[in-house]
Amino acid sequence: MSNIYDNVPGGSLNLKGDSGTPKKIKKKKKKTQKDKEKLKSYAKELMSDDATSSEPKPIRVVTKTEAELKFEAIQKKRLEEKVEKAARRSHKERVAELNRKLEEMTEHYDIPKVIRCV
């Protein structure tokens, strides 16, 4: 009877994509006092370089193209028209229009009546 189970592998099942070995979790390295001091000294150097440099850094000004300006103008105009259109009708008129649309809709979601023919 023991020869039936001789070629069955033993051990636990492995998940798909799992290599079978447990993954080692890396611990985060804590910052030491030396690291903090190095960062502080580096920051001081950067600050002193900025103050002592006689050459001003160029400032990049972002300008928009003509197409972008036209696009923004059209968007603004459309938004104003939309607000104007919404402000023309009162709430009562909007509710009445919605009710009218709902009445005109077909009721194809309703369960149809089934007539039994015997």
UniProtKB/TrEMBL annotation:
Mitochondrion as UniProt keyword: no
GO cellular component: nucleolus
Domain of life from the UniProt record: Eukaryota
Annotated stretches, region: Disordered: 1-38
Alphabetical UniProt keywords: Coiled coil
Pfam families per record: FAM32A
UniProt keyword Coiled coil present: yes
Entry protein name: 9224_t:CDS:1
Coiled-coil ranges (or none): 62-108
InterPro entries reported in the protein's UniProt record: FAM32A (IPR013865)
Biased composition (Basic residues): 23-33
Organism: Funneliformis caledonium
